[in-house]
Amino acid sequence: MAERSFAAEVEQLRIGAGETFHGEGILAVTKALLQSGVAYVGGYQGSPISHLMDVFADANDLMAELGVHFEASASEATAAAMLAASVNYPLRGAVAWKSVVGTNVASDALSNVASGGVTGGALVILGEDYGEGSSIMQERTHAFAMKSQMWLLDPRPDLGLMVDMVEQGFRLSEASATPVMLELRVRACHMTGSFVARDNRRPPMTVGEAAANPVRDTDRIVLPPANFLHEHEKIEQRWPAAIDYVRDAKLNERFGPDEDDIGIIVQGGLFNTLNRALELIGLSNAWGDTALPVHVLNCVYPLVPDEIAAFCAGKHAVLIVEEGQPEFIEHELNTLVRRADLQTAIVGKAVLPRAGEYTGQVLREGLAKFLREWAPDRAPVETPLAAPAVTPAMVPQRPAGFCTGCPERPIFSAMKLVQRELGEFHVSADIGCHLFSILPPFHIGNTTMGYGLGSAGASAFKPAGKRAIAMMGDGGFWHNGLTSGIGNAVFNKDDTLTIIVDNGYSAATGGQDIPSSKAFNKARVTNNPIERAVRGVGVGWARTMTRTYDVGGMRDAIRDAVTSPEKGPKVLIAQSECQLNRQRRVKPAMAKAIKAGNRVVRERFGVDPDTCTGDHACIRLSGCPSLTIRDNPDPLRQDPVAHVDNSCVGCGVCGEVSHAAVLCPSFYKAQLVFNPTRWDRMRAAMRDWWIGLLQRHETRSRLARGF
Amino acid sequence: MASDTRISIAILGLGGQGGGVLADWIVQLGEAAGFVTQGTSVPGVAQRTGSTVYYIEWMRAGDRRPVLALMPVPGDVDIVIASELMEAGRAMLRGFVSDRTTLIASTHRVYAIAEKSAPGDGRASDERILAAARERSARFIGFDMDAAAIAAGSVISSTLFGALAASEALPVPRSAFEDAIRAGGKAVEASLRAFAAGHDAARSAPAALPDARPVLVPPVPTTVAGRRIADRIVAHLPAPAHPFALEGARRLMDYQDDGYARLYLDRLEALAALDPDGLLTAEAARHLALWMAYEDTIRVAGLKVRESRTARVRAEVRAQPGQILGLVEYMHPRFEEICETLPAGIGARLLAGERWRRLLAPRFEKGRHVETSGIRWFTAMRLLSAMRRFRRGTLKYRVEQARIEDWLARITTAARSDPALALELVRCQRLIKGYGDTHVRGWDKFTRLMAAAENMAGRSDAGARLAMLREAALADESGSALDAELARLAA
User: Fold this and answer.
1) Tens digit of each residue's pLDDT (9 = 90 or more) over B318-364
2) What is the pLDDT of residues A27-66, one digit of tens each?
3) I need a surface site. Which of A467, A690, B3, B12 has the fewest CB within 10 A?
């Protein structure tokens, strides 16, 4: 079950020609695929493209009606390999993932499909995780397009245009026998808007029909001598065909006046930000009526030489607004104007930052620099912004952290306790929520090398007295960790500990099901235990802890694993359900049960402020959002006391931590009984009578001797 | 304003606060009112409790499709909504708040991990952010919208939406806002209640400071012994020390008895004799009371069994009147704490003897779940608290009094030559807190500071240096900041 349900939104995917579609960018792209007669869809979840996969999963019934095949791929590589279906058959197919990391994983299959070429349109939809909010290394997908000769679309953020680009992408792919990438930036994925829909189209051929009538063409297979043939084909036929299509279909757009001695070329995805920056210096308006000629590259690779030459002709200088580095387009433009024998100066990173996101402010400053140099009469008068009234030191940073009640927190609390006993360990971290262990308050984790690569990242550390520890998520485990990490560790006689976080979902990407999920899923096979899989590849020391919240137990298990005399890789599977998903399920169920009159016990934790001394050791071992601080009610004390707020879900970690770390007696667990039974009430009456008696006596005697 | 027909709105919030719901409402509100609207967000890792920005633009619908931006530009935002005070600070830091901005912010705090985990008080200053908010925005609407939402049984997004309606920064009537909530279809009634609460509060409340810390109200004596002690404080201690001394004496009578409070006053009076302006005595009244009321098993048991504690817990966990409430304490008395509660002679022998430790310590290695709502454990805790009358004979009492006397001797010596140093020595008591290992670490830092103070004695800046060392000692748990500071001072 994914974090967000699109069941309601999916209904909109059914609307027909002429109706207006309202919704998020990702949803619009889904609708565009159905309108394009796509035959199969696959992909791997990851921000910002997760919702695309969730929408597909929720739209399973609709897709089945249309004869469209959908599957959640095991990894980006398997998703890319799925495009094999378009090699021999006129099947339109689309796969999606997070880039650049997913493209890295997929690149083997991508190179193969790009080399042999395709018959049906093959579209790769990429959620480009660059800039604010990104969680990955800042690299460009553009490089993959260039090295594999795949075409890269980067549409202007306008829902209607994005939808058109999906259809155009398929056509471009078919016209040039080449797979096409459609890049969507983070905010475009989640941008709301509207467009006028067209009817959904059944694919002219389904994947089932293709399988029933196999076609074989050995010239499409990457094997000598065909691979040499492919290289020539790419250069001599597919590239020119693509350029012709991009030009003739007018994929790139022109804004502003025809004539000027300066101009701007911009990646389509950055146009809206550029327009705002132009507007702020008085050179455009809210409708994109730019006062300078702007050439918008909705297709950033390949460039169309005549288009570029025509745009640059007669201009002293052209600004290229290209985000990220290296500045591939700027290099290419320089080559193109040279070849066209134009004297136009191509200005890019000379006035814009080489690295970092191009926000409105950044582009405004870059534009001003460009204008000051090439059109001083149109340059804005610089009025420096007022210095901010607030300095960075005044506003505390908010690194991401584990959610309230997260089952991963106690794993790292336990590791911190083991480190107190045995000293620090080298910890090879992995991609996923558990990577937050690197941040405060845990400060655990030395490197992270890629999804599912936690164990592989520790493989060079042959122990001399102390074992290295690797982390791996269940998502990463099924993505590739089982083979690249665990199998490899067995094979190479590694002597490390791998802790696999088995929280029941691919949690960091939004709670999608994976093979070891506990949930029943009618479209998938779940409930495949991780421990069986690791024993299957030869791990001897494997243990499953079914309740990570048992901090003491986790600590003992980790200590055992790192001190056990047994050689070979050890695998500790730390199993507890992702709390975000659990709460989504449990909360309404509990409310319903209380309403129905059933006996329900709700647990939550609290801190006694008069025994808490305000040293916050508990917070340094937990970091739970619901465990916070507040003013010390004791007028003599100065430091704030710990406090559990009402968002507590009663997971129990704070109590277990204070037990395991021998912290303090301030934590209590409160058990609120709803709809008590008669026995509950009887027992409570007895207790209240006795406790009340003692308490009243205690109060009397204390007041008598008191102040 | 870049365009007089466009309205730009930025929402700064924390993942999980419902910022997405609020953004959706504002988008729908605009669409229903005939605007072309666009909203964007950055879900993903930022939503896992980090800060995140939602951005919305409204544009009067016309013949042509406008080009709307996907992120706020500094100086070009009409409305900034911050779901927490430091997020309002972040909005200003990023330049989103300008002289044309209506800033709507909840003034409550959700503390960042660095603020929470500091061994001392690591909280950022609210006052500076509030002052900047008032100064830099065209209009600032700020109050505790979280509390208002909770009181209405809803979440903060609804009160923020109410405050937005009340601000009249958007050209739509209140009823349109309520329609947007209804159209959302989820928890409509509670959301509307919280919306109304937010709306009304924004109309009436001036931008208020969050509650300042309650000032100390000196207790009024209620017993003969108490009055005698209060009279002695007024007669023999300097006026600045009265409030703390009265509270300190009250606490120690509660902790032990009036004899113990008299010992406290004996100690304070000795310091007062060396302290002409009373500042040292006032500070000592605070810290000496805290130290003398040290936490032992007897004290903890005593606090856990009180009537007032039951009432406080019931309120805290929002138990309904009459609702059955179970209570389980997480206690972990170690072998050391048990020995310290025993008569000094026995306790010391047990602690010193390896054989006893080997034999007995394993029995105390596991934490205990103490069910104080049950008859058995409650009675046991009550009996333990009654050990108070034997406290003076315990090992812990002997150890703590010796430590206190040593500390007071250092203060007395310093007070004669360097009052500033004496004051800082008093304040070092702040380091001694926590239980078990935490207490050991705090005590270790304290002793290092005492040693450092001894070495610095005679320097003109000894007090200031000791204060710096104390700040360093409170900066982290491991003591690495203290190590660095000590090394720096030694160089």
Assistant:
1) 999 999 999 999 998 889 899 999 999 999 999 888 888 888 888 88
2) 999 999 999 999 999 999 988 888 888 888 888 889 999 9
3) A690
Residues A541-600: tens digit of each pLDDT? 999 999 999 999 999 999 999 999 999 999 999 999 999 889 988 999 999 999 999 999
Distance (Å) from the C-alpha of residue B377 to the closest C-alpha of chain A? 10
Give yes or no: residues B224 and B170 share one domain. no
E-state strands within B276-348: 325-331
Say whether pLDDT at A1 is over 90: no
**Interface with A, mutate which of B38, B49, B260 (most A CBs under 10 A):** B49
- Residue of chain B nearest A132, judged by CA positions: B42
Handedness of CA B126, B129, B135, B140 (dihedral sign): negative
Determine the average pLDDT of the residues in B257-263: 96
In-domain check, residue B403: no
What domain range includes position B183?
6-204
Domains along chain A with CATH numbers = 10-248 (3.40.50.970), 253-378 (3.40.50.920), 409-581 (3.40.50.970), 599-675 (3.30.70)
Secondary-structure percent of chain B, ordered helix, strand, coil, rounded to 5: 60, 10, 30
In-domain check, residue B406: no
Chain A residues 407-466 with CB within 8 Å of chain B: 433, 436, 439-441
| β-bridge pairing A641-644 and A627-630 | antiparallel
Q: Are residues B188 and B263 in the same domain?
A: no
| Residue in B with minimal Cα distance to A705 | B257
Secondary structure (DSSP) of A53-119 = HHHHHHTHHHHHHHT-EE---SSHHHHHHHTTHHHHS---EEEEEEETHHHHHHHHHHHHHHHH--S
Same domain, B473 and B447: yes
Residue B341, in any domain of the structure: yes
CB contact under 8 A, B120 and A639: yes
Closest among B399, B216, B441 to B291, alpha carbons compared:
B399
Do B88 and B186 lie in one domain? The reply is yes
- Condensed to tens digits (0 to 9), the pLDDT of residues A139-169 reads 999 999 999 999 999 999 999 999 999 999 9
Interface A–B counts its CB contacts (< 8 A) at 385
pLDDT value of residue B182 = 95
- Angstrom distance (rounded) from CA A456 to CA A485: 5
pLDDT higher than threshold 80 for residue B4: no
User: What distance in Å separates the CA atoms of residue B385 and residue B398, rounded to the nearest whole number?
Assistant: 19
Do residues B54 and B175 both lie within one domain? yes
pLDDT, mean over chain B: 92
Q: Are residues B52 and B169 in the same domain?
A: yes
Q: How many domains does chain B have?
A: 4
